[in-house]
């Protein structure tokens, strides 16, 4: 079974636009769980343009599904995650000013760095995942870091899906297969939506979890949040 983790960053973007507490992040997260989400993902960024560090602290004791915190492991992020102790931390190599995540880790170049960070999170009982492009060398390198899982960066899959889904999915299937052979769990995320999700799920038996935010929250504007989450879950069953 592949779990659906709803990324609520975009909900925080709307809240922050007016400086108040509407929509209420906590209520939305709990409603996502009530509507069937099997996890909640947040990706706090240094400028706190959407999810704030305090949101992460406030959410943790209230969530009943898997909490996944994504981000670049700078000192502040490390402190936040170690204090919050979510079910999973996903390490992403974003530059602080990146508009959104735009690349996976070079797991060969940053192997020693990742290894230390991963060891620290794991010794605190936090499952680790690292964001990688679907490249054999990067998956091999990921296994060397000691991480529990990888998250395949699906932007290229999503972009190419409508032109040639067979060829665009191929490197992802190869990467997922190798990851499983190396003992790594496989997550996926970025730009997944109601069009491209089912094909990924149906072809990737290793897929444990997807985290979806942007498209899901956009769909909810038209379909409503409960109906949208149900539709995403249906793609994964
Ligand atoms: C890691 C990843 O794939 C991102 O999609 C991310 O978690 C979303 O970040 P933003 O909401 O800041 O675009
Ligand atoms: N890890 C990916 C994620 O959490 C959401 O990405 P997106 O659906 O907002 O592109």
From TrEMBL:
GO biological-process terms attached to the record: pyridoxine biosynthetic process
Enzyme class: transferase
Annotated pathway: Cofactor biosynthesis; pyridoxine 5'-phosphate biosynthesis; pyridoxine 5'-phosphate from D-erythrose 4-phosphate: step 5/5
Chain residues that bind 3-amino-2-oxopropyl phosphate: 7, 18, 191, 213-214
Catalytic activity: 3-amino-2-oxopropyl phosphate + 1-deoxy-D-xylulose 5-phosphate = pyridoxine 5'-phosphate + phosphate + 2 H2O + H(+)
Main localization category: cytoplasm
Subcellular location: Cytoplasm
Residues binding 1-deoxy-D-xylulose 5-phosphate, per UniProt: 45, 50, 100
Gene Ontology MF terms: pyridoxine 5'-phosphate synthase activity
Active site residues per record: 43 (proton acceptor), 70 (proton acceptor), 190 (proton donor)
Record-annotated site: Transition state stabilizer: 151
Protein keywords: Cytoplasm, Pyridoxine biosynthesis, Transferase
Pfam family, one: PdxJ
EC number(s) given by UniProt: 2.6.99.2
GO CC, alphabetical: cytosol
Protein role: Catalyzes the complicated ring closure reaction between the two acyclic compounds 1-deoxy-D-xylulose-5-phosphate (DXP) and 3-amino-2-oxopropyl phosphate (1-amino-acetone-3-phosphate or AAP) to form pyridoxine 5'-phosphate (PNP) and inorganic phosphate.
Homology family: Belongs to the PNP synthase family.
Subunit structure: Homooctamer; tetramer of dimers.
UniProt protein name: Pyridoxine 5'-phosphate synthase
Organism: Solitalea canadensis (strain ATCC 29591 / DSM 3403 / JCM 21819 / LMG 8368 / NBRC 15130 / NCIMB 12057 / USAM 9D)
Lineage of the organism: Bacteria, Pseudomonadati, Bacteroidota, Sphingobacteriia, Sphingobacteriales
Gene that produces this protein: pdxJ
